[in-house]
């Protein structure tokens, strides 16, 4: 009987290779692997060619999908190689770590210091960030004079490819000397020992244990402490005492597809696999890794149309080699080949280097799980939600009307919106039939491929809201499928987040929006984005979504608009001016909805409205404005009380004067009157100015400006036009505007006044 | 004390080179005065006797030295003010002990500056001979096995640039008039510098480009690093220009550096707000000149203390290169970033006045 404890580095390709050779040599009749024992039954799936790494074991608590832990495996993970070896040779595989049922229960009970795990390649269950009290690899690396433990491990172990496992065990024993494992680590190691003991009792002859190098001393006892396994280890009784009465939850486990991108980015996993693609390469290519890597990099660059010759690759290989010598490394590592690629292949340009990093160093590999795999928690969560919200998936189209004032319908709407964010278009919004913002109509139809989409979306999270939040954040980053999000895309995304009720994702998306807005040079884009944001902020909406953060964005947007508007209004042709006018009107309407902020301590110019008015005031005095815009600005300022009637009259006279071409004067009038013609009814002086200008036009110029005037006045309501007409007639008879006041019949008006006052909620004036 | 305004690197730091050479027991490439390790130490400093010359990532210097050791030519690229020339001078001084073999690239640089010229008096008197040749710095570097430096490579006309191709690929310089050639001795190499912003002025031909390993010198990575560089240089410059003593608060230096960094990077230092970048480069060198200028103002016209108003005009001048688009960028920055900072009030007012 023999027990071989093989210490590995999680996701270390060199480790994986030596482990593979060692297992060939040992020919064990059982393989024990560090991992959740619940997965014992699932290990057999590794024989299925459809289970392709990167994949992860996912343990979760049914009904509490947020409580989950992942154990990712890549092709180059030693654990994966151990599983493959066992499956190939037909020997049983068991996982020997603390069961996930306990691990997840301990997480919930809040073991205060988390999985204190000295193992460098391991964060334990991903739900808790590991607090590492001592980093053994770093200690060894410091002893060897390296500042970066990763590089030391690469140099000392990975690049050798033949480091015997005894040496690692001895080194770890030295590092662990005097280390007292905390409760969680002690339990895990006790469980590992218990699993080994059971295997021994069951009569297995050659037992191979594959675990993180850190645990080796705890599983082998005193190195060279005499023939039989178990010498110098804690007794069975102590281990049993440790493992007695552990909290337990019901945990389920399954395989899920994983990606190299997530392997690289997944925080909480202490393995620090920043470059899975490079590790894969080291593992998959038997010889000349540097040459092969740089040749492949040249291939990537050529695919993008960058000219890279074989001579480049030769020089890059030479540079990588001499850099490695200069840095005293046995073989060029990722740092050296990246420098060489940058200096030679990419000619110092960082963009192609980033391309190589993304395509090769991280890699875009996506794992795959066979159809026989148990269901992922996202599906399960959706199933529960469907039950809770009484929404049954049906293949046939079904119309659904929601009243968002009811909590049930509100939740339903949230679920459908979230699923749409995940690319599962179970419900498609239909045009709402009712009036009001609290109605929503959907067309529901469940299609079988949605299950596939859900498995794919499983990588985003384990519950629908969590996955949708992660997806929204990804979209905000310009993730796949969204392109480089434009400002409009991002405002759209903000709206979708509000609809889907994703308060976790919203701040992130808002940050992205703020960043994009800052870089956008086109003021009209900013102006187009503002009204929707103001509306969202002002009304929240029926959903009662908290929208903090929007205020800051709206404020920043407005500041940028005010600063940039000056440059945007000059040199416009008719179409551009009309376009900008629409934006100015929309922003003006939106600004009117903004609160004036805290009343005290802020002077008038500091409120949003004050700043906007100041910006417009600054513009309106400029020469060279398009007539349409100048007219409109004058009108806005007049309505805001910023200009008095006399000043408006002066400006009108100025722009009506003979120095301006008639077309511009007509445009001015259009801009000035586009808010309605009542002004002309009530201000006889302005009417007189228009009348005088019109009457003074030469016949042919009158014909020229007639279409413009027709458009302006045609937009007024018929009674307005009639009143203006009667005023114009009255102008001829010298009747003053004041006469208008005399025409009011007090008695007849009294009834209307009473009604208006009642509407305003005031009691009738005595 | 010498009377020269600026000493060569190998003279100024002769004692450091000597210390390094004495303790250097690593293998030296043929023709090198120091081993590659010692060259790297000379440039980066060792924290004791050897002062740091280049403050920045070590990997840049390592790639540069490794390149020169592989007999490939080195092209230092970067925006103006990122210490390209400075680094090339020190590399040449450390490797060859001689940083004077220099060709300055300009629009008017002729081929003779790269190959060789003729001493016409001798040419007429004696006919073509080796004695009648006036060697270029490149030719001398080849003959003596030293490092030749080419400054502002992309400012040279393309035909002059291409004269380097034979030199770099065949390591020989033919003299067809004499039916002879000069073969490079071991230790010869070329360090060229070129300006990122001038791309396209005289773009390198791909044949020449292929003979260089390119190293891009970055702008300083952290604010602390840049404050360090700026305050060092401002102090040195002030001393050599013999400006009267002024109280230069680190706070003011930090503020100028912060403004430059934020506008250059397009994001505030806390990473929370994006800002637009103006068209100018806003290099560290410009920050140094803004501060030196401000110190001169404070010393001669102010009360001897560097105040925001002394640097405000300089900053506005450095940022607003294009009067239309840059002014919008600057005003946006002023209104959205500077105004928000409580302790920058005086600076905000000074900038508003200078605008």
Question: Which tags fit this structure?
Answer:
heterodimer; A: 766 residues; alpha/beta; four-stranded parallel sheet; three-stranded antiparallel sheet; 8% strand; B: 355 residues; Rossmann fold; 2 domains; five-stranded parallel sheet; two-stranded antiparallel ribbon; 15 helices; 9 strands; 11% strand; ATP binding (chain B); MoxR-like ATPase (chain B); CbbQ/NirQ/NorQ/GpvN (chain B); ATPase_dyneun-rel_AAA (chain B)
End-to-end distance of chain B, in Å?
A: 44 Å
CATH topology description of the largest domain in chain B: Rossmann fold
Strand composition percent of chain B: 5-15%
Please work out how many helical segments of chain A DSSP would assign: 34
Q: Main β-sheet of chain B: number of strands, strand sense, barrel status?
A: 5 strands, parallel
The best one-word shape of chain B is elongated
The total domain count of chain B is 2
By CATH, the superfamily of the largest domain in chain B comes out as P-loop containing nucleotide triphosphate hydrolases
Distance between the terminal alpha carbons of chain A, to the nearest Å? 109 Å
Number of helices of chain B: 15
Region (Disordered) (chain A): 106-131
Pfam family, one (chain A): DUF5682
InterPro entries (chain A): DUF5682 (IPR043737), LolB (IPR050458)
Pfam family, one (chain B): AAA_5
Give your account of this protein's structure.
The complex is a heterodimer of chains A (766) and B (355). In chain A, the strands form 3 sheets. Chain A has a 4-stranded parallel β-sheet with strand order 1-6-2-5, with helices on both faces. Chain A has a 3-stranded antiparallel β-sheet with strand order 4-3-7. Chain A is elongated and about 120 Å long. Among the domains of chain A are: 2-255, no CATH class; 285-362; 392-476, no CATH class. With 766 residues, chain A is an alpha/beta fold. The model of chain A is unreliable at 110-134, 267-271 and 598-602 (pLDDT under 50). Chain A has 34 helices and 10 strands. By secondary structure, chain B is of the alpha/beta class. Chain B has 2 domains: 70-216, Rossmann fold (3-Layer(aba) Sandwich), CATH 3.40.50.300; 223-354. Chain B is built from 15 helices and 9 strands. Chain B has helices spanning 9-12, 14-23, 36-44, 58-69, 84-96, 120-126, 137-144, 158-170, 206-209, 223-240, 250-265, 284-300, 308-319, 325-338, 345-354, and strands spanning 73-78, 102-104, 116-118, 133-135, 147-151, 172-175, 180-183, 189-195, 212-216. In chain B, strands 2-5-8-1-9 form a 5-stranded parallel β-sheet. In chain B, strand 6 (172-175) and strand 7 form a beta hairpin. The chains are: A alpha/beta (766), B alpha/beta (355). The A-B interface holds A 307, 309, 311-312, 315, 318-319, 322-323, 325-327, 335, 339, 342-344, 346-350, 511, 514-519, 521, 556, 559-560, 563-564, 567 and B 36-37, 40, 59, 62-63, 65-67, 69-70, 72, 75, 77, 206, 209-210, 212-216, 266-267, 272-276, 324-325, 328, 331-332, 335-336.
């Amino acid at each position: 009987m023999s027990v071989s404890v093989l210490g590995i580095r999680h996701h270390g390709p060199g480790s994986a290779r030596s482990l593979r050779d060692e297992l060939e040599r040992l020919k064990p009749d059982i393989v024990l692997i560090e991992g959740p024992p619940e997965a014992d039954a699932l290990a057999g799936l590794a024989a299925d060619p459809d289970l392709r790494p990167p994949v992860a074991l996912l343990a979760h608590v049914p009904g509490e999908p947020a409580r989950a832990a992942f154990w990712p495996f890549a092709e180059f993970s030693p654990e994966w190689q151990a599983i493959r070896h066992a499956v190939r040779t037909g020997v049983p595989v068991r996982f020997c770590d603390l069961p996930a049922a306990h691990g997840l229960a301990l997480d919930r009970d809040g073991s205060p210091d988390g999985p204190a795990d000295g193992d460098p390649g391991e964060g334990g269950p991903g739900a808790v960030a590991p607090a590492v009290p001592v980093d053994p690899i770093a200690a060894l690396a410091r002893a060897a004079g390296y500042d970066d433990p990763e590089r030391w491990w690469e140099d000392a172990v990975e690049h050798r490819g033949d480091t015997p496992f005894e040496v690692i065990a001895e080194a770890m024993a030295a590092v662990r000397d005097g280390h007292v494992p905390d409760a969680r680590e002690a339990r895990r190691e006790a469980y590992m020992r218990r699993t080994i003991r059971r295997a021994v009792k069951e009569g297995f002859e050659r037992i191979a244990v594959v675990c993180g190098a850190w645990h080796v001393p705890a599983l082998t006892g005193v190195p060279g402490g005499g023939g039989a396994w178990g010498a110098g280890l804690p007794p069975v009784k102590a281990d049993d005492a440790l493992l007695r009465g552990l909290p337990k939850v019901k945990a389920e486990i399954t395989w899920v597809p994983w990606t190299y991108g997530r392997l690289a980015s997944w925080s909480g996993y202490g393995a620090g696999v920043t470059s899975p693609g490079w590790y894969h390469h080291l593992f998959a290519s038997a010889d000349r890794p540097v040459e092969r890597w740089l040749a492949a990099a040249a291939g990537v660059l050529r695919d993008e149309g960058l000219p890279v010759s074989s001579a480049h690759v030769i020089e890059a290989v030479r540079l990588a080699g001499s850099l490695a010598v200069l840095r005293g490394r046995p073989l060029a590592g990722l740092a050296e080949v990246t420098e060489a690629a940058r200096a030679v292949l990419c000619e110092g340009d960082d963009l192609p280097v980033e391309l190589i990093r993304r395509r090769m160093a991280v890699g875009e590999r996506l794992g795959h799980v066979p159809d026989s795999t148990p269901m992922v928690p996202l599906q399960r969560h959706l199933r529960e939600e469907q039950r809770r919200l009484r929404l049954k998936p049906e293949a046939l189209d079904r119309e659904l009307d929601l009243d968002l004032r009811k909590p049930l319908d509100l939740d339903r709407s949230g679920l459908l919106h979230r699923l749409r964010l995940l690319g599962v278009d179970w419900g498609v919004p239909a045009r709402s039939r009712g009036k009001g913002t609290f109605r929503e109509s959907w067309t529901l139809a469940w299609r079988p491929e949605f299950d596939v989409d859900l498995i794919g979306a499983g990588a985003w999270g384990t519950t629908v809201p969590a996955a949708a939040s992660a997806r929204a954040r990804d979209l905000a980053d310009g993730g796949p499928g969204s392109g480089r999000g434009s400002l409009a895309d991002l405002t759209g995304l903000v709206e979708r987040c509000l609809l889907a009720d994703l308060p976790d994702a919203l701040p992130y998306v808002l940050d992205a929006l703020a960043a994009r807005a800052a870089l956008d040079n086109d003021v009209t884009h900013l102006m187009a984005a503002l009204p929707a944001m103001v509306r969202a902020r002002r009304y929240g909406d029926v959903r009662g979504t908290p929208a903090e953060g929007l205020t800051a964005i709206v404020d920043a947007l407005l500041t940028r608009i005010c600063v940039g508007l000056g440059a945007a209004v000059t040199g416009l042709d008719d179409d551009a001016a009309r376009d900008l006018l629409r934006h100015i009107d929309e922003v003006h309407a939106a600004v009117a909805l903004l609160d004036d902020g805290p009343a005290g301590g802020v002077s008038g110019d500091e409120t949003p409205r004050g700043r906007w008015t100041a910006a417009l005031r600054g513009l309106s005095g400029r020469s060279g404005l398009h007539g349409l815009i100048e007219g409109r600005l004058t009108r806005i300022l007049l309505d805001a009380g910023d200009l008095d009637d006399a000043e408006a009259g002066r400006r009108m006279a100025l722009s009506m004067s003979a120095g301006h071409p008639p077309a511009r004067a007509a445009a001015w009038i259009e801009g000035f009157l586009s808010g309605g013609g009542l002004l002309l009814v009530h201000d006889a002086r302005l009417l007189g100015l228009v009348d005088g200008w019109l009457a003074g036009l030469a016949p042919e110029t009158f014909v020229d400006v007639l279409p413009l005037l027709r458009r302006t006045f045609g937009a007024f309501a018929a009674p307005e036009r009639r009143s203006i007409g009667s005023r114009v007639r009255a102008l001829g008879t010298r009747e003053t505007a004041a006469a208008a006041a005399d025409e009011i019949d007090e008695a007849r008006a009294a009834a209307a006044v009473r009604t208006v006052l009642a509407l305003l909620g005031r009691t009738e004036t005595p | 004390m010498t009377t020269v305004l600026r000493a060569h690197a190998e003279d100024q730091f002769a004692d450091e080179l000597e210390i390094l050479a004495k303790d250097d027991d690593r293998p030296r490439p043929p023709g090198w005065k120091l081993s590659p390790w010692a060259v790297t130490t000379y440039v980066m400093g060792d924290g004791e006797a050897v002062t740091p010359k280049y403050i920045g990532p070590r990997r840049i210097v390592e790639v540069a030295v490794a390149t020169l050791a592989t007999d490939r030519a080195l092209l230092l690229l970067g925006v103006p003010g990122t210490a390209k020339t400075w680094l090339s001078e020190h590399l040449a001084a450390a490797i060859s002990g001689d940083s004077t073999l220099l060709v300055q690239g300009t629009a008017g640089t002729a081929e003779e500056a790269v190959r060789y010229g003729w001493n016409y008096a001798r040419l007429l008197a004696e006919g073509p001979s080796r004695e009648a040749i006036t060697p270029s710095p490149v030719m001398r570097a080849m003959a003596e096995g030293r490092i030749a430096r080419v400054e502002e490579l992309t400012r040279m006309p393309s035909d002059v640039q291409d004269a380097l191709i034979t030199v770099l690929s065949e390591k020989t310089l033919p003299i067809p008039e004499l039916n002879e050639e000069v073969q490079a001795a071991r230790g010869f190499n070329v360090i060229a510098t070129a300006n990122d912003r001038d791309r396209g002025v005289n773009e390198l031909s791909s044949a020449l480009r292929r003979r260089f390993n390119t190293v891009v010198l970055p702008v300083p990575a952290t604010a602390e690093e840049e404050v360090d560089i700026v305050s060092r240089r401002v102090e040195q410059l002030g001393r050599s220009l013999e400006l009267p003593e002024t109280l230069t608060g680190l706070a003011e230096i930090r503020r100028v550096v912060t403004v430059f960094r934020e506008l250059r990077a397009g994001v505030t230092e806390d990473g929370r707000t994006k800002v637009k970048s103006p068209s100018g480069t806003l290099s560290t060198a410009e920050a140094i000149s803004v501060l030196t200028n401000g110190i001169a103002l404070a010393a001669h016209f102010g009360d001897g203390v560097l105040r925001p108003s002394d640097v405000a005009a300089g900053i506005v001048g450095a940022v607003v290169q294009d009067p239309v688009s840059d002014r919008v960028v600057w005003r946006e920055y002023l209104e959205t970033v500077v105004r928000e900072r409580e302790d920058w009030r005086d600076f905000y007012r000074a900038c508003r006045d200078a605008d």
